Amino acid sequence: MSDAPHLTARRAGPLTGTVRAPGDKSMSHRSMILGAMATGVTEVEGLLEGDDVIATARAAEAFGATVERLGPGRWRVIGRGGLASPSGVIDCGNAGTGVRLLMGAAAGYGLTATFDGDASLRGRPMGRVTDHLERMGARFDWSGKPGLLPATLNGGGLTAIDHVQTVASAQVKSAILLAGLNADGVTSVTEPERSRDHTERMLRAFGVTVDVQEQGGGWIIRLAGGQRLTGTAVAVPGDPSSAAFPLAAGLIVPGSSVTVEGVMLNLLRTGLFETWREMGADLTIANRRVAGGEDVGDITARHSVLKGVVVPETRAAAMIDEYPILAATAAFAEGVTVMRGVGEMRVKESDRIRLMVDGLRACGVAVEEEPEGFIVTGGRVPGGATVHTAHDHRIAMSHLVLGLGAENAVTVDEPEMIATSFPGFVEMMRGLGGDVA
Per-residue pLDDT tens for 411-424? Predict the structure, then answer.
């Protein structure tokens, strides 16, 4: 990863080759947290070794677990059956998922912990999680503005709640469920629209009884307090959110054929691939198999003539992190791509709707911004801009992929943030034939 203040992507020849996606970020965070809460040894293979997950691993250690790196992607966590008060501040860096899930996990124990992060994380709303943890009995003291880090948690003495999601959010659901493990009573979360279910799946692997019942297009998840976790083996498959970047480049650069091996195919994570196919993308999946309790496969993307589509709003939860790269590919599609019902994008690492609109416009693409979404009119992509990323790794990578297919080079600022989720991104794209420097 470059330490330069900027990175630039230029159109070159076709992209070809086979690469492996980094380990899934969601599962990597959870493996560290659940391993720390458990009793005994948790062996993890395929862990994403990006800055965000490393921050969560350090937090697990600060809460009393023993955390060891055994080799590339291979880690061992020895848990002591619960979390203890850390001696110092829990610095979560840029990891929004990490801090919100850690708050939920820690809230159930009689401990005191102060959470903080970098400038970007300090600007992201925590109330969407902490409000519900306070309903359960946890207490949060805010050093500055309420709802923003740094914050000190006083945990323990929780009572179960019945929570109904108004916006599909795996982070909110997961924080409540993790707190519910040590709450009095049965905690339930009702989801009118399904969000990713890695927490439920992984809790079962650690020996927890989790009841999931379908209800309409969503489900109700229930778990009883007082359950104990037992260390286990976790195999982390490739992250579909990361695989999206080299695959998108394969779709938009003429003559390209790019294969990404070992990609998770959980149906709650494949909304982008479904949308691309509706746009006319040549995507094929081979070698389907099961790893870490998840369906995985090898995905090949070949250069395709894309057309604009209306993305169903009900698909948002299955691809909320992929809308930036979808918008970048939509810039090359003939016609209009409508993306609505994605207001959740505004409270990610940045206001991703605003940044994608600004970046695409700077590159000569017609974009219309709405409060809960945006509309891209594709076709010709002039490029030739320097894009502000606001420390957001997905904004940076999306515009670098755009630059590989644009008429003129596209530059992004603050490229060091890419390492938070995708260490080796630049090297991977260069290995496929991309001009990124």
Answer: 999 888 898 889 89
| Active site residues per annotation | 321
Domains of the chain: 6-23+238-436 (3.65.10.10), 25-235 (3.65.10.10)
In terms of Cα–Cα distance, which of 161, 275, 165 is closest to 216? 165
Please state, as a whole number, how many other Cβ atoms lie within 10 Å of the Cβ of residue 125.
14
76 is known to lie in a ligand binding site = no
The verdict on whether residue 348 carries a ligand-binding annotation is yes
What burial letters (b/e) apply to 221-260, b meaning 16+ CB within 10 Å? bbbbbeeebebbebbbbbbbbbbbbbbbbbbbbeebbbbb
28 annotated to bind ligand = no
Q: How many angstroms separate the CA atoms of 218 and 61, rounded?
A: 35
CA–CA separation, 272 vs 241, rounded Å? 9
Q: Which of 419, 374, 372, 428 is nearest to 248 (CA)?
A: 428
* pLDDT digits 0-9 by tens, 297-313: 999 999 999 999 999 99
Which residue reads 């502000």 in tokens? 388
Q: How far is Cα 421 from Cα 437, in angstroms, rounded to an integer?
A: 19
